[in-house]
Amino acid sequence: MVDRQVRNKRSIIVGAGVAGKELVDQLKGYHSLGYKITGFIDDNETKQGKKIKGIPVIGKTSQLENLISQHEVGNVFIAIPSAQGSLIRSIVNSCQKAKVTFRIVPRTLEIVRGKVHLESVRSVSIEDVLGRAILKSEQTELKKIFKGKRILVTGAAGSIGSELSRQLAQFEPEILVMFDWWENGLFELSQELSDHQNRVKQKMVVGNIQDRAKVEWVFDKFTPQVIFHAAAFKHVPLMEEHPEEAVKDNIYGTKILAEIAGEKKAEKFIFISTDKAVNPTSVMGATKAFAELLIRYFNKVYSTKYSSVRFGNVMGSNGSVVPLFQKQIARGGPVTVTHPEMVRFFMSIPEAVQLILQAAKMGKGGEIFVLDMGEPVKIMDLAKTMIRLAGFEPEKEIPIKIIGTRPGEKIFEEVLAKEEEIKKTSNNLIFVTKNVLKIDDKALLATLGRLIVLSQTQDRCGIIQELTKILPTYGKIPASHLRNDPGKPLLTKIPDPDVFQQI
Question: Which fold has domain 4-124?
Answer without folding.
Answer: Rossmann fold (3.40.50)
